Amino acid sequence: MVAGIFLAAFLLYFVTYNVRSSATRDIVRYDLNPEEYSLLKDGDFILRHGYGLVSDGIVQTFNEDYHVSHVGILVSCDTCPHGFKIIHCVSQSLYPIDGVQEQSFPQFLWDSQLNSIMVVRFKFANDTTRHLISKKAIEYLERKVPFDHSFDITDTTSFYCSELPWLVLKNVFHVDIFEGKDFNQFEHLKFEVFWNPKYFDVIINHNVRR
After folding, report:
1. Which of its termini does the chain have fewer beta carbons within 10 Å around, N or C?
2. How far apart, in whole angstroms, are the C-alpha atoms of residue 154 and residue 148?
């Protein structure tokens, strides 16, 4: 009886929390300015703080210098708004599709909390080789890799969100951005590596350092 009441209360809180978040998202129309759009390149990585209980929980749990909860890959697209689409890996609990999927740039921004966007560029690629990042991301998209609900870094048959860019860079450029991370302490779930100057240049940053 008590367990049932607790579960019902939690579900009510979860639904109410996400409804409030969705209402905020509907009011705020997040966008980049023209100068920022001109800085973007195929194969860049885009980070954000999403809406909802899960996204807020990630941010509050890790409490990193920049508050982000998700990462995707920019892929050039001549017929897409602003010339790009986003390939990222998301759970079916948040999106209609489970796993690696593509999304329009405006939709990705719409699902981002105000002033949370960061765009970073991998240092070990150049204008000649950076397209290999998006090419590999498209390969995983076509393979329909499912979401890794266990967050098991040793299982590459399914991905969680930051596992996708990790494997792309590891397989294409043979650079392990999680090198030295203690997987037993869940350090591979943090996003700080994406603003580590050893691997990335920050191109756009709307996020305020904590």
Report:
1. N
2. 11
